[in-house]
Amino acid sequence: MSRARLSQWWFIGTLAASLLLMLVPLPGVLEPFKPYWPALVLLYWALESEDRVSLGLAFGVGLFADLLDGVLLGEQALRLCALVFITVHFRSRLRFFPMWQQALAVLALLLNDRILLLLVRMLAGASLPPASWWISPFVGAALWPFLFLLLDDLRARLRIQ
Fold it and tell me: Keywords on this record (predicted)?
């Protein structure tokens, strides 16, 4: 298999795995701790390979995630588009941050994502979520260094550009 084909399959595979991880059910007590996997994987690819990640891809992944998750159509698409737009805009700075600063930037992006989700749900007529609803961005930011290093190491082992 050629390197370009392997690279394409690796990219698609990581996005598919993130969508599957989003669907993994957790016990009710642990549900607030589940990170938003598609956002984390799209963040990684937006930082590492800007030519692959676009707003159209983020929108498509978001629509597919909406269909899988059974939420308001376009909710996750809007959130992922905003996240990718900000990441691509500040890519040149974020790439060279030390890992702890990258984790703080990811936290800010994930908190922005939660605020967008809150606005969409409030406009749709939902009630205010509990305080534990805000834990997920902190878990995602704490997992970011490990996810980044894992994906980067696997990409290097496969010699994918």
Answer: Cell inner membrane, Cell membrane, Cell shape, Membrane, Transmembrane, Transmembrane helix
